[in-house]
Protein 1
Amino acid sequence: MDIEKIKREIEELKRQKNAIIVAHNYQIDEIQEIADFVGDSFYLSKVCAERTENVIVFCGVHFMAESAKILSPQKKVLFPEIDAGCPLADMITEEDIDSLKGKYPDYSIVCYINSPAAVKAKSDVICTSSNAVKIVKNFPNDKIIFLPDKNLGSFVKKQVPEKDIILWEGFCITHYKIKKEDVLKAKEAHPEALLLVHPECRPEVVELADFVGSTKQIIDFATSSKAKEFIIGTEMGILYSLKKRNPDKKFYILHPGMICPNMKKNTLESVRNALLYDRYEINIEENVVEGARKALLKMLELS
Ligand code: 13P
């Protein structure tokens, strides 16, 4: 495989099709390197909503590409690896929302962006890991159902104690691997290092952190910090930007299993093929787009 040739083909196809490539911070290094925009789910959803190109190649997992399509229904959104899903997003269904609404009619639904489009369509507002606290605080109802991530939900509950928040039982299979013992071991091995974690980690891990934030917020924090060493509690794709922006600092990943198998499905070849064969195009039912768009726009308004 001639990597340089594939990169040239991608550049040429991008020009021909008036396309941009956006990549999540968990993508493999080679994809982050060629992407036009790299970031967390909030940043990428804003980029997709604001850009004027006709085609978006979304390198991430399925709910992210769906969100791009919902925010830009007139654009063609291509998703190179069709089976790159998110197990957390699949832990909640439309039927679950219907039954919650029946059981708790006075509550508003704040839905994490890691969720299917049909679930978003039945929610009042969407949030990402970077703005969940702000959205719950600013939403004009004190009774909230937060779903599907129970760990992000617990983090929000602690930050917004004045609200009555019901949690759902979902979790990220990758972040869930990190246990308190891993943190204690890492802190012992690197006593000078600050601990930066994603709020999808277990509450007992989050409790020990020096900083809790989205992938972009972790990168920004480490970049502006005076500290020289950091223990990182999230997926290891984040190391690409951390090291690129901070060549003089040291980063230790908290657990060797911090690899999201779905985020790692995209390759340079699948990105080239996405552009070459227009695949796989994201299409969402019109009535779902309408409801989900309302909830996503509410997030942009409140954050
Ligand atoms: P970010 O909001 O930090 O991009 O995280 C998305 C995600 O899926 C974390 O597992």
Protein 2
Amino acid sequence: MKKVIGIGELLIDMMPNEKGKRLKDVTGFTKKAGGAPANVCVAAAKLGTSSVFLGAVGDDAFGDLLIDELNTYGVNTEYMERSTVANTCLAFVTLTHEGERDFIFYRNPSADQLYRGLKDLSILDHQILHFCSVSLLGDYPMVNTHQRLLKHAKTHQTIVSFDPNIRLALSSDHVTYQQTIKAYLSYADILKIGVDELEFITGKQVYKDQIQWLRTYPWRILIITLGKDGVHIYTQKEDVIVPSYAVNVVDTTGAGDAWIGAFLAQCAKHDELPTNILILLDYAKVSNAFAALTTTHMGAMEAMPNLVELNEFLHEKDLKK
Ligand code: ATP
């Protein structure tokens, strides 16, 4: 069985206690573990796959909390670093009733950006490496670490998975952000993109043109997530749309991370990257169920179901067919 190895940011999401207010008017916050690549590792671990998180937190109380949280879910944190010069990243984000996003990221830099990581890269060999774009911004050690790991991965039979997971709030220079993402697309064997991110990445407005543009890159599987409508999956030859399940949605935070985490967990268990569209269809059904269940509770990591809950849900849906 392969391992799922995630690299990138692990941070504290300060969730406002009231929805719809501007940050300056919010009366309090609740701390939650966050960070897309870390969410993916938790999803894989919850489904019984070995997962390893690579990244840094500060040598502070929030860093303790985050490492404890990952360990609770069974994610291996032995290669993480604790920074004594920068604190754990904090993100305060709220959506006002008018749909405006108010945000403050404490990241100047934060510990996650300083991760130098792994001298011996052999833990990546023959495994699955997942990364996102938030940790590719700026001129920090973490960017070099990504480049070092990705170059190694390409020559050591590592399956590389990339979910750009765009966070425009993190950069005012959107041109550089877009170019940065483009520079990393070629590393991906599995490329997962939310449908609403396609225009930013490809510069095209029409879906067909966006996919055509993405076809110029060497991915083996392209996954376009469609929110409540499920996913559109492509191999180089075929494609299939797999609808999601109707659930009572409470919070969609981390649904995309849950989806790709569950998908990578299945690839890891079967020890290979499927290119047969029927196998991909089966994987997508399981991932849709896992992600749909994640939306039925608040938060990301804690909202993800375990294997028993997932199987019960799938069994129930099968019986209703
Ligand atoms: P992010 O979590 O960053 O928004 P994303 O844009 O990839 O990532 P979505 O496309 O919103 O995420 O959702 C990912 C997957 O979660 C979908 O493909 C679907 O399987 C499931 N999902 C999301 N929203 C719903 C919903 N309302 N009902 C059922 N399933 C959902």
